[in-house]
Amino acid sequence: MLRSHVVEKPTDSRPATEIFRLAPDGAIPNNTNPALVYRGVFSQRDDAGAQWLEKRFADNGWTDAWRWSVYPFHHFHSNTHEVLGAFAGKALLQLGGEHGPEVNLRAGDVLVIPAGVAHRKLREADGFQVVGAYPEGREPDMRTGLESERETTEKAVAKVPVPAADPVFGADGLRVFWR
């Protein structure tokens, strides 16, 4: 199901970026744009880390922020992209559906999830917590890949625009990786 997984080290000061290109998984549409993991983006932890993420995301137009963990079941959003910034602990997540890749996320990492890409938490440790947000504060729907959702979700995912800015790196971020 995974089409490719690449680690890219940009020539500027940005950290290494893990790029996950995910093919449709029958029940899960996924997206032609890849999921991105930015490693070690920030050093603050706990409340200071959460505040840093909330401010950085909001400064780049990703709002409606929340603090929590990640659901332990496959889910995705057909109407918006999502960003998750880990500010405490660590977790093993799975992307793209039942046969998708497993990704370790730890405090200091940021995961950018395109609309349609399933994600779930497999396990966590050390009080894993994230700040989540959405471009332009969009209100996310909740999809789980039900057969009855398939036709409408695929059409909805295709209509979600690429955000004006990357949640961490601003105007120069996402357009390097997304079309």
From TrEMBL:
Name this polypeptide is given: Uncharacterized protein YjlB
Transmembrane spans: none
Listed InterPro entries: RmlC-like_jellyroll, RmlC_Cupin_sf, UCP019307_cupin, YjiB-like
Lineage: Bacteria, Pseudomonadati, Pseudomonadota, Gammaproteobacteria, Lysobacterales
